[in-house]
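User: Fold this, then the next.

Assistant: Folding the first:
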Amino acid sequence: MKYDAINSQLFIKNRKNFMAQMKPNSLAVFNSNDIYPVSADSTLPFEQHRDIFFLSGVDQEESILILFPDCPKENLREVLFLRETNEHIAVWEGEKLTKEKALETSGIKNVHWLQDLEKVLAEMMALADTVYINTNEHYRANVETETREARFTKWLLNKYPAHSVAKSNPILQRLRSVKDQIEIDLIQTACDITEKGFRRVLDFVKPGVWEYEIEAEFIHEFVRNRSKKFAYTPIIASGNNANVLHYIENNQQCKAGDLLLMDVGAEYANYSSDMTRTIPVSGRFSDRQKAVYNAVNRVKNDATKMLVPGTLWADYHVEVGKLMTSELLGLGLLDKADVQNEDPNWPAYKKYFMHGTSHHMGLDTHDYGLLHEPMQANQVFTVEPGIYIPDEGFGIRLEDDVVIQETGEPFNLMRNIPIEADEIEDIMNK
């Protein structure tokens, strides 16, 4: 891995917290992701299933974690199964975890090779009443491919039909949404790498450059700072492309006078960052562009202050809508009649700001978190309002990642990334 070793105390604590919420006499199983084929002998780069990573720190394929806190056999309360490594694998694929290295990484003492799985699992299942399966229940999930986890669950329930079944996901949604300080530090590192990429781009952008060249500048800086990739597919959108919310072609030339919206984040140690900045291709905003930019920035700053313990996500978005409505009135994009006659289910401001303002952030860019439950300290959220004006040929979105505090305003993990319009102009014209 490119990243520095993570303190195994994080994973020990995560497992302890998960097991504390399990039903009596139950076990839970977690699988690595598959390596997905492209065609012929090509594969996509491996991405670890975030749940087994969260609970073990293991970052390789063909790994299985079983937790059984009430097991009468103490050595079977935490068991990790790995693909057995050998000299051939080392030569052709590189180093894999040994049992000793797995202990160092995860804090799990009982490590088996994968060929022992059915034998050890049978011993454990004979002692358990309930099995926790790990289903993907994220509110944005849309899974068409059968995952390794799903295949294993199908096999497990067929082989052991008499056991009661419970779900791991509700426990993980709550645990993963509240970050340990080690996790916050890792997200901060991802944000710091993103900052380096952004500062590089500020020196690079000028009329005539292509969106894909800007994408290349970002990934150059990310990789040289020990990130393996973008945290998500980057959006590099000049001119009217910014009005396509998920524009990812990144294949157009940046023209003088245009604005450039960049929704980009580095990952670090599987943790995401998620930044959006909008800059003038020519180095200066027009008066109209700057007025809209500052309106978006004010909404972002005021919305951020609302992210405090106890806030409900749905109520928060209603309040942000009021802030945005006020700014759109000031910009002349809405008038009082638009607001008075609006559909409550699709308020007038949605014409120019049609997406949500915040989502959970962490191991996944759209991380785990139950949106119907009040916000808590140490949850990490994005704040990303925007105003999109196709008729004027530009869209502006600004986005930071913040940590909710016990008291006071959130802590901005992107506090060092330039965002004020005047600062952007100064850097681009220095």
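Now the next one, as you asked:
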Amino acid sequence: MKNRLKLMFAAFICAGTFSVHAQGDFSMEADQSEEAGYIAPKDPLVKANLEKWQGYKFGVIIHMGLYTQLGTVESWALAPEDWVTRDGYDDYYKYATDYRNTKFKLNPTNLNSEKWAKMFKNAGAKYMIFTSKHHDGFCMYDSKFTDFKITNPEFPYAKNPKADVLKDVLDASRKEGLAVGVYFSKPDWTSENFWWSYYPPKDRNPTYDITKFPDRWKNYIQYTQNQLNELTTNYGKVDILWLDGCWVRPLSTINKKVEEFCKYPYDMDIDMKLIAETARKKQPGMLVVDRWVPSEYENYLTPEQKTPEKPLSVPWESCITLGGAWGWVPNDHYKSSKEVIQLMTSIVVKGGNLLLGIGPDPKGEFDPEIETTMANVGKWLSANGEAIYDTKPVEPYLDGKVGYTQKGKAIYGIYMPAKDEKELPAEITIKTNAKGNLKATLLGTKQKLASKKTNGGIVVTIPQELRTSLAAQEAVVIKVSQ
């Protein structure tokens, strides 16, 4: 268990650059310097879709692959790096062989994409991103360029009429009105053109000198471009192309943020310009997120397991797990709906989106605790979503237990009770510079609250008979309007 947890926490570092904090720490600082390197899109359709996406505020990302069958933290145990431990294995190659042979076992026969999509929608999520391929190279879709895929006739799930899991999940999510995205790993640790078996892997990078074998590397670039082309051609409308594995990047883009883990001395440029232009011919206005590679192809920033200390002036999304891992692991510990709502609030008041990471078990089902939490998040959002969706951050953003958002002329003070808080205070001050006669309303019930203007805001009275019940809620929204 200890070794598995070590791998779990290390694997939070999606591209190896963010430190990991304990579950429940929602004040983690993201790199504010990323803001300065952001390049805004020029394409009018991309700009319009990006603005629309910023209003979504809440999405989910689903990790599923061979690692699901094993109950491990994604495919990181394949990386022959010092921080990785492998329970029960002293021989790396034995582990790698056993890991890849899990392809003969993965058989999520209880996967019900319609049920999944309803859960996402009822949770209040506005978009869903699904893993088409993680770093191990195993495809959860019917790629024509590899046999290492769930639809391979030799593998058990290929007999299922919905064996193309990516297509199944995207279609179901669209039917529920969600925008959809495709996660894709730029590195591929099973491709002979990335990890050439002639040379043993030493780390997450190519096993060979790509300058000495340029044709092999060109083949890998073509392979990557081919797969991305089929993903953006054969799977209906794709709103977001979410690219992971930031160490595969032009050498000139390596900055202080990633230099510790980008030690490969050669240029791993896969031609993002061509990839984006080709994809957008079929997917006009599609958002492209080449994570942590500052360029016009990183349409929004993606701090991982973190939130910025201050609001950012550029589009961003914090991707954070509900439990301890991105995918399913046995006996995981999940955040409560109260933690999720307060985490979401701490992000939205700074102008960002929450992308919540969850994963199904080997049968294709979500843990009942996940389902319960998601349902409770949705219940809160159905009553209080006006203070979350399509809002803008407004000063003072986050002040003590109160977060602030704005929509039109309305100001929303979102009070976040502490874990052990038994009763709300008799008065809550909502800071605002709004002029004129102001009224306060309890958003969830539309109940009017007594209030009085004060210097820089209004003081709202919380009725005694409501203080206990309100303290038990995930968060309490007070709407201030004229």
